[in-house]
Design brief:
- By secondary structure, the chain is of the alpha/beta class.
- It has helices spanning 33-37, 77-81, 100-114, 126-138, 152-160, 176-190, 211-220, 235-249, 269-276, 301-310, 319-333, 339-346, 348-353, 376-380, 393-401; strands spanning 2-5, 11-12, 27-30, 71-73, 85-90, 118-123, 141-146, 164-167, 192-194, 226-230, 258-264, 313-317, 362-367.
- It contains 15 helices and 13 strands.
- The strands form three sheets. It has a six-stranded mixed beta sheet with strand order 4-5-13-10-11-12, sandwiched between helices. It has a four-stranded parallel beta sheet with strand order 8-7-6-9, sandwiched between helices.
C-alpha cells in the first residue's frame, strides 16, 4: 500500500495522519494491481477482514457480523415514483445498526497494529456506538467525545459496550480543524489511536466503507447506474467511489455509477460548493438540521471530487421531507431507518423530474442506519399514549375499525 495525496500526488510516509504535509490535500491509500485482482476471488459473506488485501492493515480485523447487508428491491416506493429498479442497501442491519461498523472494525485493527492503549474519537452518535463495540471486541479502551444533545439511543449503545463518554460543549461548533486538532492531541497525550472518522484527519478509516461497493456489485453482478447517498462529512460517498474505481481497475466492472449526494437544506456545505462550481467545500458558520446523522457544517473535498468525477450531482432536501420518507419507508417497504438514512430516497422525485435519473436505470439508495438510532417518530406513535381496551373480541374489533 502507498499513501498518496489526492491533490498533488505526493507520497506520504506509511502511518501518516492528517492532511498532506506539502499541499494540505486529503491522503488516499492505494494498492497494487495484484491486490485488487484478489477481489474477484472473495466469496460472499459477512466481515470485512476478507478484504484485507485491499485494506490498510495487516492485523486481523475483529468480527461482529458487519457487512453483507441486504440489497432490497423496492416493492412500492420505486414503482410509485416510476423507477423500474430501485434498490435499498440497508446498512441498518450491521451489528450496532449503522454503516459506521465497517469503519469501526478497521479502527480496532489499526489501533492494535499501532500498539495503542485504546481509541479516542469525536462523534455525533453512530461512530461512537460502533467504535465502542469494536473496541470491546478487541479488548481496547475507548474514549468518546460527544456533542451534547444527540439521540440518547446512540449514547446508550456506547455506554453499554464500555466506552468512557465525555460530553464536550461546542465540540463541532469550532469547525473541523479545531475538533481534529483536539482529537489528535488527546490521542497523543493518552497513547490512544485517533479514530475521528473523517479522511482529512485519518485517511485509513474510510477504507472499511468501500466494501459497500464491493457488495452491491456482487449482488447485481455489475455496477448500478446510480448510487444515492446521504452526506455529512462525506466519507461514505467518497469511499464508495473509491470502491467502484478499484473494481473497474481490477476488470470486474465495465462502467462506473453516477454518485448523487444528498444533504439537508439546513446543513448544505457540499450542496453550496457544488452549485457554485467550487473545487473546495467551505465550512458553514453553523448547521441547523434536525437530522442528527447529517447535521454537520463541513464536508470533505473528497466527496465533492467523487460527485464531479462520477458525473453526479448534489441534491438538497428539507428536514420535513426526510422525516416523511422515514415514515413511508417503514409503512410501504417494511424498512425502519434513522432519518438520515431516508434522505437519499427523498431526493429521487426531484432527480427524476430534472432528468438526472431515468426510469429504466438501476438506482441504489444507501440507507445508513436503523430506525432505533433516532426514534423520534416511533416515540410519537408510542403505544404508551393509548388507553388499554378490555379483554373482549367485540371491543377490540370495534376499536380497530373506528
Amino acid at each position: 500500500m502507498r499513501l498518496v495525496c489526492c491533490d498533488c500526488s505526493r507520497e506520504a510516509p506509511p502511518g501518516a495522519l492528517g492532511p498532506c504535509p506539502d499541499c494540505g490535500g486529503i491522503l488516499r491509500p492505494e494498492y497494487p494491481d495484484e491486490a485488487l485482482r484478489q477481489l474477484a476471488d472473495i466469496p460472499p459473506g459477512p466481515g470485512i477482514d476478507r478484504y484485507r488485501a485491499v485494506l490498510p492493515v495487516s492485523t486481523a480485523i475483529p468480527f461482529l457480523g458487519e457487512g453483507d447487508t441486504p440489497l432490497i428491491r423496492s416493492r412500492r416506493v420505486g414503482p410509485a415514483l416510476g423507477l423500474e429498479a430501485l434498490y435499498f442497501k440497508n446498512e441498518g442491519r450491521n451489528p450496532t445498526g449503522a454503516f459506521k461498523d465497517r469503519a469501526a472494525a478497521l479502527v480496532a485493527a489499526l489501533a492494535l497494529e499501532a500498539g495503542a492503549k485504546g481509541v479516542v474519537t469525536a462523534s455525533s452518535g453512530n461512530a461512537a456506538s460502533a467504535i465502542s463495540a469494536y473496541c470491546a471486541a478487541a479488548g481496547l479502551k475507548c474514549l468518546i467525545l460527544l456533542e451534547p444533545g444527540n439521540p440518547s439511543a446512540k449514547l446508550r449503545q456506547a455506554l453499554a459496550t464500555g466506552a468512557r463518554v465525555l460530553p464536550v460543549q461546542g465540540l463541532f461548533a469550532r469547525g473541523p480543524e479545531a475538533v481534529s486538532g483536539l482529537v489528535l492531541e488527546v490521542a497523543a497525550r493518552l497513547n490512544y489511536y485517533p479514530a475521528f472518522v473523517w479522511a482529512p484527519v485519518n485517511p485509513y478509516i474510510l477504507e472499511g466503507l468501500k466494501s459497500i461497493s464491493y457488495e452491491i456489485v456482487a449482488r447485481l453482478e455489475s455496477a448500478p447506474e446510480v448510487v444515492v447517498c446521504p452526506v455529512g462529512g462525506g466519507d461514505l460517498l467518497a469511499a464508495q467511489w473509491r470502491g467502484y474505481l478499484e473494481l473497474k481497475r481490477a476488470g470486474l466492472i465495465g462502467n462506473l455509477p453516477r454518485l448523487i449526494g444528498v444533504q439537508s437544506l439546513n446543513a448544505p456545505p457540499l450542496l453550496k460548493a457544488f452549485k457554485a462550481g467550487d473545487r473546495r467545500v467551505t465550512t458553514l458558520p453553523n448547521a441547523n438540521s434536525r437530522i442528527s446523522g447529517i447535521n454537520v457544517a463541513f464536508t470533505g473535498d473528497h466527496a465533492l471530487a467523487a460527485v464531479c468525477e462520477s458525473g453526479g450531482v448534489v441534491a438538497g432536501v428539507t428536514d420535513e421531507a426526510i422525516l416523511g420518507m422515514q415514515a413511508r419507508l417503514a409503512v410501504d417497504e417494511g424498512v425502519w431507518v434513522e432519518p438520515a438514512g431516508a434522505a437519499s430516497t427523498v431526493a429521487l422525485a426531484s432527480l427524476l423530474e430534472a432528468g438526472r435519473v431515468s426510469a429504466g436505470e438501476r438506482v441504489v439508495c444507501v440507507l445508513t442506519g436503523a430506525g432505533f438510532k433516532d426514534a423520534h417518530l416511533a416515540e410519537a406513535l408510542s403505544l404508551g399514549q393509548q388507553a388499554a381496551v378490555e379483554f373482549n373480541v367485540d371491543t377490540i374489533v370495534r376499536q380497530f375499525t373506528q
